[in-house]
Amino acid sequence: MRRITLYFPQASRPVCIAWLLDELYFPCSVMFPDRENGKAPQAFKARTRVQQWVHAAKSMFILHALATTYARWLSPQRAQDHGDTQELEKNPSVNMQEDFNRLDKGLEKWKTGFLVGKTLVDADIMVHVSVQYISARALGIRGVDTKKGKNVAEWVDSARRVMGTRKLWIRRGLYCPLGYVGYWWITWDHGKLLTSVICVYFGFT
């Protein structure tokens, strides 16, 4: 089982997570830095890229996608027949195109094939699901030059391959892909080992 690392900058969220892990008797390694002028060290703040992408997945990508989704769902049939719905989609589509451009630039900047570091983490999983939702429904990206998003396309394929090869390990309770803070809850039921993953993310990885 992969050991969890708890980054503990002496703030409320890591205190809650530390308490939870202690109640669960779950072992973890603790990174405990001294605060600088009463604040979390700058080196810790540099690790918040994961938190930024996790938040972006739902508060930016999906939020922008819902504007187009609801336009399609709620437009009367006559509006769809006359092309009014497609016209209505144009303005919110700009936001999604900007989201994809930001994702592409982020991948280009780090050049590792993943959003943070050299392997799949919770940031990749969260954004990947949002991107797949948007792409499958062509929300705001119809007619967009896909060559501009080459990094995104390669990242999607890479994430799929990695997640595919890890399914077996996840089912066996030997690997947790969702970052550092979480726990495996293992119980026995009629002689069969049931493994569930409950991951609690608090902003550092």
TrEMBL record:
Cross-referenced Gene3D superfamilies: 1.20.1050.10
Keyword field: Membrane, Transmembrane, Transmembrane helix
Superkingdom, natural source: Eukaryota
Transmembrane segment boundaries: 169-186
Identification of the protein by name: GST C-terminal domain-containing protein
InterPro entries the UniProt entry points to: Glutathione-S-Trfase_C_sf
